[in-house]
Amino acid sequence: MWQSYINGLLMAAGLIIAIGAQNAFVLAQSLRREHHLPVAALCVVCDALLVSAGVFGLATLLAQNPLLLNIARWGGAAFLLWYGVQALRRAISPTALGQGAETGPRSRRAVLLAALAVTLLNPHVYLDTVLLIGSLGAHQTVPGAYALGAASASLVWFFALALGAAWLAPWLARPATWRVLDLTVALMMFGMAAQLMLGQ
């Protein structure tokens, strides 16, 4: 059980930490202190629902079809390797996370709708949570623990951004910080790809 939980935690952490539109939005809202906690909660709920749909829906489908399981296994491994290479490329030429905050306060509804758009209109969200994390969950001994681990990573990361944005801002503005993070992400992705290819 704990191995499945840790696998889900590390896999989701590697995907969530990478610089992306969702992280940039949460960080910008947090720096402005504009409905940042509801935004973080919304991102966590969306991730948990998408991961659960991927883990349990794909796990059942793949378990009934060995061909699809092999396609998901090798496709997932290929995607992980590609993702790791992208992280290495970012580490070689790192950039700071742009904040680009808008001026003027917005209502909670407007901010949450914008957060939903950033989260659900991004095709990478579905690749990462539903397809990639879901297909990996099909190989776990305890899929529920794996999904819980993935949701835990989302919870910790988004609330860390929401609550610690002002303190983290100077640190996150340094390209060297993202170089270390991207190198860590690359190692995680390569490790998980190897685990898939070896059938573990």
UniProtKB/TrEMBL annotation:
Membrane topology, from the record: Multi-pass membrane protein
UniProt KW Metal-binding keyword: no
Compartmental location: Cell membrane
TM region positions: 6-27, 39-59, 71-89, 110-133, 145-168, 180-198
InterPro entries cross-referenced by the UniProt entry: LeuE-type (IPR001123)
Main subcellular localisation: membrane
Transmembrane found in the keyword field: yes
Keywords annotated in UniProt: Cell membrane, Membrane, Transmembrane, Transmembrane helix
PANTHER family for this protein: ARGININE EXPORTER PROTEIN ARGO, ARGININE EXPORTER PROTEIN ARGO-RELATED
Protein name: Amino acid transporter
Species of provenance: Metapseudomonas boanensis
